[in-house]
Specification:
The chain is an alpha+beta fold and 169 residues long. It has three helices and eight strands, in the order ββαββββαββα. Strands 1, 2, 3, 4, 5, 6, 7 and 8 form an eight-stranded antiparallel sheet that branches.
């Protein structure tokens, strides 16, 4: 399904850093070392392209970031059994997106589904009543070539096709 509207707000950007997903159990307190690391990343060491999303549900705490995690998660007080996946490329919808627009994420992920590219979506907000900032769709690095091809063939405009992370695709 091609983009529902032909507008620059729906142009796609291929982000140039790999993203990591860290999943922690929700039935434990967040280790202070993780909290300290997040604080340093969010406020002291954040760069203009820093990406950190933290979601807590009754089942888990998920942290998605393009920042470097310590080589040894035990340095953060996290057990070795914690699932860690560091192989995602991220696609950003340019945005901002008017709140009344519907079907944008659906239109974007349908060609990815058809190309058998699994996704992990994150949305951000500017204002609860007027604007969504944008959507981010993460795809496994092993599938970035398939994702890029599927979206271009479907009619999506990708602004930075020469992105290093997505080269060779």
């Amino acid at each position: 399904m091609p983009p529902p509207f032909d507008t620059p707000e729906l142009h796609l950007h291929l982000l140039n850093k790999a993203h990591t997903l860290l999943r922690l159990p929700s039935n434990e307190d967040l280790p202070s070392s993780v909290s300290n690391w997040l604080t340093r990343c969010l406020w002291a060491g954040a760069t203009a392209d820093a990406f950190i999303s933290i979601t807590r549900t009754p089942d888990e705490v998920s942290i998605v970031t393009n920042l470097s995690l310590p080589d040894n998660l035990k340095d953060l007080g996290v057990s070795a059994e914690v699932p860690l996946t560091s192989s995602f490329g991220a696609i950003k919808v340019q945005g901002p997106l008017a709140h009344h627009l519907t079907g944008i994420l659906n239109a974007m992920i349908l060609p990815l589904r058809d190309a058998q590219v699994p996704i992990f979506a994150i949305s951000t907000a500017l204002s609860p009543s007027t604007l969504l900032d944008t959507d981010y769709v993460l795809v496994p690095l092993s599938k970035v070539s398939d994702a890029k091809k599927a979206l271009v063939e479907d009619g999506w405009t990708i602004v930075n096709l020469d992105n290093e992370l997505w080269q060779g695709s």
